[in-house]
Design brief:
It comes from Maritimibacter harenae. Pfam families: DUF3035. By secondary structure, the chain is mostly helical. The chain has a domain of 51 residues. The protein contains 8 helices and no strands. The two termini are 51 Å apart.
Length: 170
């Protein structure tokens, strides 16, 4: 009986609110990302049969270079988007990183090696059966103990910035 009265009282109290309820506290007074840069008008072709075949990853006829347009609208240099040359400070870094050669398809190679590693370290039967994530366990041997490394560097006399305390020590 008391529970029913509590529910009715709560319903009546919530009906007295001044504004509409917000779902998960989502606000609508935030900026609209589509109003930042005006869209170009849509064009209808004269003949649909004369259109070129779509090319995945190709350019759009209406927005030939959308990234440069967005950079220009935000006050940046649109030529920097299309430029492949390195900035002045990046030359030394790139030369050092590529000193033993650079594999042009390194992302694909790393993705294949990582997929193979995760396949070999997929967890035990019950972990796979109940879809338990074993991500951190499978990569634990490759992770760095930041606090042990910090202690090692400080003991060697290397200046290191402060770090958060180790929760296991304190």
């Amino acid at each position: 009986m008391k529970f029913g009265l509590s529910v009715v009282a709560l319903g009546l109290l919530s009906a007295c609110a001044d504004e509409d309820p917000k779902l998960m506290n989502i606000r609508t007074d935030t900026p609209d990302e589509f109003s930042i840069m005006p869209n170009k008008p849509l064009e209808q072709p004269e003949d649909y049969a004369a259109l070129p075949a779509p090319t995945p990853g190709g350019t759009n006829r209406a927005d030939v270079n959308p990234q440069a347009d967005a950079v220009a609208a935000l006050g940046g240099n649109p030529e920097a988007v299309t430029s492949t040359r390195a900035n002045a400070g990046e030359g030394t870094l790139l030369a050092h990183a590529q000193r033993y050669g650079a594999n042009p398809n390194i992302r694909q190679v790393l993705a294949e090696e990582d997929a193979e590693y995760r396949r070999e370290n997929n967890g035990r039967l019950l972990e796979r059966l109940f879809n338990v994530s074993v991500y951190y366990d499978s990569y634990a041997q490759q992770s760095l103990d930041q606090h042990r490394e910090l202690d090692r560097l400080r003991a060697a006399g290397v200046y290191t910035p402060s770090a958060p305390p180790d929760p296991e020590r304190y």
